[in-house]
Amino acid sequence: MSLLSNEVELLRRVPLFAGIEPGKLKLLAYTSDVVTYEPGQVLVRKDDIGDAAYVIIEGDADVSVPADTGDITVAELHDGDFFGEIAILCDTPRTATVTAKGELTALRIRKEPFFQLMKQFPEMAVEMTRLLAERLTRTTADLIEAQRQSA
Amino acid sequence: MDQSIFRYTWRFSKRDQIWLLLVVVASLPFYFLSLDLPKQIINGPIQGEGFSSPTDTETALRIAFSIPAWLGGGGNEFVLFDGIELERVAMLFYLCTLFLSFVLINGAFKLYISVFKGRLGERMLRRMRYQLVDTLLRFPLPQFRRMRSSEVATMVKDEVEPLGGFIGDAYVQPAFLLSQAVTAMVFIMLQSVTLGLVAGAIVAVQVILIPRLRRRLLILGRQRQLTARALAGRVGEIVEGIIGVRVNDATNWERAEIANRLGKIFFIRFDIYQWKFLVKFINNLLAQVTPFIFYLIGGYFAITGRLDIGQLVAVIAAYKELPSPLKDLIDWDQQRLDVQVKYTQVVEQFTIGKVLDPELQKLDTNTPPRIDREVSASGLAIRDDSGATLLEPTSLKLAPGDAVAAVGPVGAGGEYLAEALAKLSVPDSGRILIDGSAIEGLPDSFTGRRIGYAEANTYLPQSSLMNALIYGLRHAPLRSQTEESRETRQWLTEARASGNTETNIDDDWIDYAAAGAEGPEDLLVRLREVLVLVDLENDVYRLGLRSKMPEEALGEMESRVLAARDAFRERLVKNRGEQYVEMFDPERYVVNASVKENLIFGVSDPDAIDGENTEDQYLAKVVTDTGLEEKLVNMGLNVAETLIDLFGDLAPDNPLLERMDLMSPDEIDDYRAIVRRASAGELSEVEESDRRALLRLAYGYIEPRHRHGMLDDELQAAIVAARQAFRDNLPDDLSGAIVFYQPGSLNSAASVQDNVLFGRIVDTYAEAVERVNALLRETMDSLGLTDAIIELGLSFDVGSGAKRLSLAQQQKVSLARALIKRPDLLVVNRALTALDANAQDATVTRVLDFARGLGDPGMTVFWVLGHPGSGQWFDRVLTFENGRIAKSEERSGTEEGRALEPAK
Lengths: 151, 904
Hints:
The complex is a heterodimer of chains A (151) and B (904).
Chain A: H1 4-12, H2 22-30, E1 33-37, E2 42-44, E3 52-58, E4 61-67, E5 70-77, E6 82-83, H3 85-90, E7 97-100, E8 104-110, H4 111-120, H5 122-150
Antiparallel strand pairs in A: 1-8, 2-7, 3-6, 3-8, 4-5, 4-7
Helix pairs in contact in A: 1-2, 4-5
Chain B: H1 5-46, E1 58-60, E2 63-66, E3 77-81, E4 84-86, H2 88-137, H3 141-145, H4 149-159, H5 161-167, H6 172-191, H7 193-240, H8 242-247, H9 251-303, H10 309-321, H11 323-350, E5 375-383, E6 389-398, E7 403-407, H12 414-421, E8 429-434, E9 437-438, H13 444-450, E10 451-455, H14 465-469, E11 474-479, H15 486-497, E12 508-510, H16 520-533, H17 537-545, H18 551-574, E13 581-583, H19 595-600, E14 602-604, H20 615-625, H21 629-647, H22 668-680, H23 688-699, H24 703-706, H25 713-728, H26 732-735, E15 738-740, H27 752-757, E16 759-761, H28 768-783, H29 786-794, H30 807-820, E17 825-829, H31 837-853, E18 860-864, E19 876-881, E20 884-890, H32 894-899
Parallel strand pairs in B: 7-18, 7-19, 10-17, 17-18
Antiparallel strand pairs in B: 1-4, 2-3, 5-6, 5-8, 8-9, 11-12, 13-16, 14-15, 19-20
């Protein structure tokens, strides 16, 4: 059974939350739900409107996008991975589907507590911006690479 | 109704009143004899008059009469019975026995007269109330806009109430009292004309002056009635509009308003009080001053020799007899005035220009003819009270089976046309013809059965959901269900004697045929069909699942629900969903339930508590006795510390506080103080109130939800042990109030769902609730239990004004009610405003399919749409603008019509 204290430890290992004092992380954990998924159950589905971000407490998950030939797995997620924040930040539909590989337990962080925390801790907002910028750089690099290959 | 209560009473109780008078007259000789006998007893046997020697006898029981000379009797006596000779003691016995029998006869007369009067009054009261409601039902609809419901209710209930008591006395009392008074007066007159005149003068003063004084009382009485009625109306308005009062911070305005009214009522009542006692005072004064005059004048006459002493004493004695009937007569007159005021007030309210002809609402047990030609409106114009035009002259033809939609902004005209089609408004000009007959001349038994009408704010009175749905099927008693017995006959006789309807509410009034059913057996099938149409079936099913089973059905349901419990478990296992439900096991701690639920491990029914012990008190005792208290207080302390630690620093308006659970935001400071006090000393020294507060936190704790990690195996075992103690030592007064969970048996206090699940849903699993619900429904369907559950859901009490249903559910009920009777013309007037556009559209298509599927030509539909997109499903779409039809679009053929894009 998952306990608040373990969840706080888990959250501290997420880079985004690394700079936040444990007391506030405990609040974040308390106001979130622990959800258990069965193998094959979908945590988030592409194009759905999202209202929560997730930290995997235990288990593995596949990130996939649908394609003509069926779903293509683009990444894998493991213990301590944080995902789903884009959809709640920008109110955009989910960009990919996340499916539990085996039994999986995740902390579901709702939009409201997440934003409250962002408001109270500017360092978290900065960290968030850094993270997003990093991803943008990587995506841009991937795009250039892809264009060069197809040229 | 008559303007005077006397005329009204006479009209409806002539025979009874005359009979009553006759009985009173018949009782008078016995009364007189019973007054006369004591004299005979004293003078005769006791004083010895006529018994001068012990062997003397007197005649008793002699029956003889003489015929007066003018009838040719010539003074001869006809003796029928010579009588028997009795000695002195025997005579005493005889006369006393006679006296006793007269007392008994008088008593019997009195009893008979009182009961007769009482029944007469009650019958008239019943008649009057019935007539008032009967008239109310026939009021033209616009009249209701000007009425306050609670005022009308007061009139029917309270204001006519005193009338019943008075009516029995209306004629008899004055006749009786007057005859007594007149007798006394005549007696006085016979003794001395002068004194008679004096007595007459005083009586005249009383009779003339007192009513004059009372005139003021009358006015005040009327004011009192009006203000009291208005007060009832205002209180009713506060109750109905409580939301408006609260959201506008208008409570203090309402207080002032009510206080103002109460002030007025107070001064009126106080005024009445003062006048009443003034009148009483004058009345008593006059009565008591009279002997003074008699002594003075009578004494003077006696001294001057114009009157002998015997006469004076007799006059004074006779005068003693006078005030009591006079006083009663004046009281009666007072009551008469009071009642007359009340009666006139009520009758005035119910006398309005034009009530509907009773013929239009006549009970009709036959099935009315169908609308098989057309419904047409020609030049129909409607205005509101102020004369503003709501609908310009409009013409429309609806052939059988037509589906016509009206779209346009709110108030553009479609809704008024809809109301007129349902005979709800009176057109200013033009008319509506149904199969050639003008709608206003058609009886309700035709329009109310052949036309179905649904609107958004249908008022649903408190009843079961079932009764709310089949309201439109109850037009007349169709199947008698009352057995012929003495009680039912008496019941009917009484109804007739009070001019009430003789229909029996206990008969089966449901018109099964109208719903397309054969009888009670398959009505549920039709109901479910309609529930699906309006998308209410699932709601009803869920209501049923969450309901307790009625006591009378427990026996029958037990085996089925227990079978469902096993079947559900099996299904759960088969679908690999065991982990979704944590089973109840008396020997094991249920992790997904709170500590308190684990302790009690049952369901309590607060109504069944029979004594002073409450569940909480007993629980506290058990917790103390089993030594669990320290552990739980400690746990509560821990929870409090954590919560204060987490939430204590947040601003009071922080939305995260809502997720705190266990503690409410405004309790944080209290608990902070409790934690401070508790951590200062030994735990065992914590004050009683603080301990209770901490225990409360511990009781609500659920490990998987709160995750403080405080329920180790040892504590769980201790709680399970306490559970056992709770159950074993349950005091008698709680024994009926708590039903424990027990494997293999039904829990009569728990809902069907809890009985079938027999456990708690583990909601930390994703989609656990949805999956469990789906499996539950499958189980119920496969076992054929769904019908029973739906029936249970239909027995749900919708609450006053259906407040226990959501607005959307109320609107669905309103539409379902119009559909179940399968009308020839269905008029829907923006009835689904509480639903979103998609849901409205889905309902429109389902209802239209149903309407078209009802044979050829099917149901005619006129639907004022809240959402124009649904227009595409209709044969014709009328666009209303500013009270007129601006555009009419035909669609050729239903199937093609459906393929069209929504009307732009």
